[in-house]
Write a structure and sequence with these properties.
125 residues; mainly alpha; 434 Repressor (Amino-terminal Domain); 2 domains; 0% strand
Length: 125
């Protein structure tokens, strides 16, 4: 994952970046075969999505695959396809957006306190 997310120009570069980030977050070494198996597809099929367009076995990422990959690798499917927005940009519900907006000006200590309260409330429900 040598590239920053700003340098990722193509869907296949963004896909590879997302997979690397996801696997590292799990504490495992990036591995396309393991990712393919976790998605329930053949490794050679997965690698065709992650290779450059000039490769003979290249397969472009379609809308449904972008959704599947986005869910698995915890990134925005729209970002995978277009590069617009950020990997973590997901649509928030109105209540979620209200919470985010309310916490923007809070100190880190206040944000931690609010997060603790919300987590306790949700566990109690």
């Amino acid at each position: 994952m040598d590239q920053s997310e700003d340098d990722l120009r193509t869907p296949w570069q963004r896909l590879r970046w997302a997979r690397h980030r996801w696997q590292r977050s799990l504490g495992v070494a990036p591995n396309a075969t393991a990712a393919a198996e976790s998605l329930g597809i053949e490794p050679h099929t997965y690698r065709a999505f992650e290779g450059p367009e000039d490769r003979s076995k290249f397969t472009p990422i379609n809308h449904q695959r972008a959704i599947d990959f986005g869910r698995k690798f915890k990134v925005s499917w729209a970002w995978l396809l277009t590069g617009e927005g950020s990997p973590d940009s997901r649509s928030l519900s109105e209540p979620q957006q209200r919470i985010v907006n309310a916490m923007r000006d809070a100190s880190t200590a206040q944000q931690e306190a609010v997060a603790d309260v919300v987590e306790r409330m949700l566990r109690a429900m």
